[in-house]
């Protein structure tokens, strides 16, 4: 056997650089690069190894460990899970900063390779700087926090262990069912230790997407359920995009007359103006999609994990004799709520279902109802997003301005707070991937870093990040990274002076205005934060827009710019789009001294009576 003597870190990065994929006939590295913040736990071993392969496996310096892992996750999502990135940190706080990002990737089923440094395997210098000591377990380190938020976790304590660990890592990162974050905790002494590695380990390997076919009995059961349906609907999740099945979905819906609604992850599978695209479903859904969901006797859930925002906390679907077909690569998701499982790739499954249905179509009256409902919703939605002279516009009015100033090919990026609800209902996605929302973990601080990752994955498209002042304050450092890398973003900061979304939820559940808006939080001095000055200090072109008219002008200027722009606009924290939507189960206290809470509790009990579990 031919071997080459390398340190474990050198073997690791040489292996990563040799992994390839083929997209549109072009062979590309499957790892687009490594985000790195070096410290004493990774600079000498992995840092030196990355330097040696910097031309074939580029290293990108970030400013915050959590944010760089968010950027890597967003890159993978924008790349439809076909390509991905790694992120490395030192031990201690650098590593645990990435735990939240690992959870984001885990919840959203996205590939991310995390390479945190770890303590000395030989334990000679223990305890080293930043080492956490457990009094009852000498094997623990802070990296054990990654175990519940990783699809695969391994701690490398000997150099040869990296050989099977990397094989397992690639299997998980590229598997459509088990895809998620992989953590390889790299003991810092092991990184620098040498071993005679087989040369074959570093041969080029092409990874193609796996498209599993369904079990014949499951397919037959799904077809029988569809053929018996009189009021079928499709819920499209992120799995449709990851399968690159949007054209197949459109053809399926058109041929069989079935309306399509979308989860946050699945939004943009169909263009907003497709006649059967009903838009968002669930808590933040359109009236078009939700009225159909309420009446449906069959729900074909494609590539979705059916979280509570999609199902209205399982109170949305009320049709007589309703059935659920779960088309998913992951059996765990396919059988939720007694769904008939159809475990397979989304594109393959839709193609086989269409062939099996032959000329079957949904009743014309049902398809007509869907189209009429969509037209009604579009009329209503336009009233929320239209131009205004208000000094403090709503989130919906800002969304309308961003939409009017943009193009069908644009990508809007967002994550947590009130904006996801408004965008899910109101954003008109013109092309697949044009709506990039992290709403699985709903992680504040994802937005700007996510925009960086999206733009790195798809540099030809304009990327607009919409972020509230709360999320901006939590994580904004990757503005500097975007400027440093020459990555152009347009970032719109909506300043409602607090956590407006949760303040509205607090009010809806009978609570007093408390600790959400800055004015309602304990303070000696009410903050007056200059977001434009801050963004400019990070290297962005920053302006403050006074009203919707100035916002649209600033957006046009940002579009013509060659560097990252930040546009700040003050907004009203109270209004939201009350049309559409569905109930969301947020528990209200049974006992309170406040009459508002008692009234909210009565409403909550009434709504919960519609919730169905396991039927």
Write the layout of secondary structure elements.
Elements: E1 3-7, H1 8-18, E2 19-23, E3 26-29, E4 31-36, H2 43-52, E5 59-61, H3 65-78, E6 84-89, H4 93-96, H5 99-107, E7 112-118, E8 152-156, H6 162-174, E9 181-187, H7 188-192, E10 194-198, E11 205-206, H8 216-228, E12 232-236, H9 238-242, H10 246-256, E13 260-262, E14 277-280, H11 287-295, E15 298-302, H12 308-311, E16 323-328, H13 331-334, E17 340-343, H14 346-357, H15 364-385, H16 395-404, E18 411-414, H17 419-426, E19 435-437, H18 446-457, E20 463-468, H19 469-474, H20 478-485, E21 490-495, H21 500-508, H22 531-537, E22 541-545, H23 548-560, E23 565-570, H24 595-608
Parallel strand pairs: 2-11, 4-5, 4-6, 6-7, 7-9, 8-9, 12-13, 12-15, 13-14, 15-16, 16-17, 18-19, 18-20, 20-21, 21-23, 22-23
Antiparallel strand pairs: 1-10, 2-3
Shape: globular
* Rg calculated over all Cα atoms: 25 Å
Largest sheet data: 6 strands, parallel
Number of self-contained structural domains = 3
Strand content: 15-25%
Order of strands, widest sheet:
5-4-6-7-9-8
The CATH superfamily name of the largest domain is Thiamin diphosphate (ThDP)-binding fold, Pyr/PP domains
Q: From the 3D coordinates, which CATH architecture of the largest domain would you assign?
A: 3-Layer(aba) Sandwich
Structural class: alpha/beta
InterPro entries: DHS-like_NAD/FAD-binding_dom, Myo_inos_IolD, THDP-binding, Thiamin_PyroP_enz_cen_dom, Thiamin_PyroP_enz_TPP-bd_dom, TPP-bd_CS, TPP_enz, TPP_enzyme_TPP-bd
Enzyme class: hydrolase
Family: Belongs to the TPP enzyme family.
Domain Thiamine pyrophosphate enzyme N-terminal TPP-binding: 44-130
